[in-house]
Amino acid sequence: MQFTPDDISKEKRLPLIDRIPDCEILTKVTGREEINLNPHSHNRHQIIYILSGTLHIEAGGKNHFVTERHLVWIPEGTVHRLSSNNRQISLLVGYFHADSKADDSFGIFRTDEMTARNLDFISCRRRINMHKSPEIYSFAYGFLCAIPHICKKATFPAQSFIITDDSRLSAILEYIKSNISQDLTIEQVASRFGLSARSLTRIFTNSNIRFLHYLNYQRVVRAIEIISDGAMNIEQTAYEVGFNSPNSFSRVFKQITGESPSGYFRK
Questions:
Q1: Which candidate, 74, 256, 78, 56, places its Cα nearest to that of 155?
Q2: pLDDT given for residue 37 in this prediction
C-alpha cells in the first residue's frame, strides 16, 4: 500500500501514544489526521467522541457506523481502523492507562449533556498528570472509566456487519455499497456476478445477512453522511441514495433508525 508523506507522519505518531506515561491522560480535538490509518492498536484505552461528521470503525471483525454525539470505547489492545466519508469531521480523542477493573469490551454509546460537558472539561486540559493535578486527574480518570457504565449503548447507528473472509461475498457487498443509487435487485446483482438469485440468497443467508436489509442500511448510512455534510436536503438525498420517492425513504429510514429523517436530524 502506498502512503503519502502525510500518511507516513500519521503512522509514525502511533508509537508515541504507547509511550504516554501511565500517570497521564492525553486528550485532543482532532480531524482527519486520526483516521485512514492501517489497522492498529494501543496499549492504552481509547475513547472517541464524534463532535461532527460520521465515522466507520472496523474492530473485532465487524464494521460499525457511528454518528455525531456518540462515543466509542476502545479497550487497550483492540485492533481497529477508522475511516470517514465526510468532507469534514471533528473528533475528541482520549488515551489513558486503566487498571484491570476497567471495561475491556469494545462499545458504542449514546451521550447526554452531562457527558458532553465533562468531556469538554477534560479535553481543555489536553494532558492531565496525576502528580501535577491530582484532583483533576482523579476526576477525569474516574469519569472515563465510568463511561461504559453510565452511558447507554447505542442501537442505531451502531448496528454492525461482519467483515467477511469470503472474497466473493466481499466483492458483492462492495458492489452494492458503490451502486446504492441504482435500482438494485437480488436478481440483477446475482447476474452481475454470474450467479442465480437462489445461489446469492444462500450466500447471504449463510453469512446471516439479508440482501434488502443490507441495501437499505447502506442507503440510510450514505444519506446520513450526505446530510451531515450539508450537501443536500432530505428530499434531494432520498433520490441521491436510490429511493424512488421521499416517502419510501422516510419509511425505510424509520424502520432502521426508529425515527423519521426530520426527527433524527432535528436532534
A1: 256
A2: 83
**Sign of the four-CA dihedral 111, 87, 122, 72:** positive
Q: Which position has the grid cell 465526510?
A: 86
Instruction: Reduce the DSSP state of residue 80 to 3 states and report it.
Output: strand
- Tell me how far apart the alpha carbons of residues 156 and 187 are, in angstroms, rounded to a whole number: 29
**The three cell numbers locating residue 239:** 433520490
What single DSSP character describes residue 221?
A: H
Task: Return the pLDDT at 4.
Answer: 42
Superfamily for the 165-266 domain: Homeodomain-like (1.10.10.60)
Domain with CATH 1.10.10.60 in the chain: 165-266
Judged by DSSP in three states, 144 sits in: helix
- Tell me the longest C-alpha to C-alpha distance in the chain: 67
pLDDT given at position 159: 61
Say what the pTM is. Answer: 0.86
CA atoms within 13 A on the CB side of 231: 16
Angle at Cα 10 formed by Cα 17 and Cα 94, nearest 5°?
40
Instruction: Identify whether the C-beta of residue 69 lies closer than 8 Å to the C-beta of residue 54.
Output: no
Angle at 26 between CA 23 and CA 27, to 5 degrees: 150
Q: Report the topology of domain 5-150.
A: Jelly Rolls (2.60.120)
Q: What are phi and psi of 63, to 5 degrees?
A: -110, 125
Joined together, the cell numbers standing for residue 131 give 502528580
Amino acid in the structure at residue 34:
E
The pLDDT of residue 36 is: 81
Distance, in Å, from the CA atom of 89 to the CA atom of 146, rounded to the nearest integer, reads: 26
Q: Which amino acid, one-letter code, is at 242?
A: G
Low-confidence residues of the chain: pLDDT under 50: 1-8
Q: 125 near 27, Cβ under 8 Å?
A: yes
